[in-house]
Amino acid sequence: MQQWITGLNTTCVLCNDTQESCSHLFFECRYSEQVWKKLVGGMMQEGYTADWTELVEIISKPWLNQTMTFLIRYTLQATLHVIWRERNLRRHGEQPHDAAHLVQFIDKTLRLKLLSVKGTGNKHFEENLMICFGSR
Ligand SMILES: [Zn+2]
């Protein structure tokens, strides 16, 4: 975009520290990394990463088990959407939200989504969900 529009401000609006890029937004940026880590740090444990290339690799192949793979993929999808929306709101002059607000919103979204899965009779899946949410 900087090549198309001379003088365009491409500084990250989430941290105001450096130039915006895909890998910066997801999740080199200290703001977005704070959100990501709070959501999946406990779940991923020693496998935790905020590196975009590593994340793509992780979600591209089955992880620890089916439940964890589902949760990491779904959490990533929801987090990307909410971070991108926050970025766009700030670009258009809206009031910024702190990282804790985004974490709370994404967590609520995930829980509502998972309520639709709960009660399907898959006891193993439900037990793993409890473990995952207990890790936050
Ligand atoms: Zn940033």
Explain the overall architecture.
- With 136 residues, this protein is mainly alpha-helical.
- The chain has one domain.
- 63% of the residues lie in helices and 0% in strands.
- It has six helices and no strands.
- It has helices spanning 22-28, 30-44, 52-60, 66-91, 99-115, 123-134.
- Helix 2 packs antiparallel against helix 4, helix 2 (30-44) packs across helix 5 (99-115) and helix 4 (66-91) crosses helix 5 (99-115).
- The chain is elongated.
Care to give the gist of this entry?
The protein is mostly helical and 136 residues long.
N-to-C SSE series?
HHHHHH
Q: Taking Cα atoms only, what radius of gyration do you get, to the nearest Å?
A: 16 Å
Give the overall pLDDT as a whole number. Answer: 87
The unique ligands bound to this protein are: zinc ion
Domain tally: 1
Largest sheet: none
Unreliable segments of 5+ consecutive residues: none
Distance between the termini: 38 Å
Estimate the strand proportion.
Answer: under 5%
Overall structural class, as computed from helix and strand content, comes to: mainly alpha
According to DSSP, the number of beta strands is: 0
Shape: elongated
Counting DSSP H or I runs of 4 or more residues, the number of helices is 6
| Range of helix content | 55-70%
